Amino acid sequence: MVDLNENQLDFGTISSTRMICPDIEVEQQLLKQLSGKSYQFKINSNQLVLLETSGNKIVMESN
């Protein structure tokens, strides 16, 4: 579950199917980083930037 409050995303526990795919390790690391945490977010053209209160930053970019 994800809650959106103004410019903050609050992630609940995240789960996924454990299907075999080429980047399963990357997916698992991302889910672990997001699960149960809150992030401020910004959208800059083709980027989604998530900023944790500790200063950790996740940048996702589309092609």
Automatic annotation (TrEMBL):
Annotated ranges, domain DUF306: 2-58
Pfam families: META (PF03724)
Domain of life assignment: Bacteria
UniProt-recorded name of the protein: META domain-containing protein
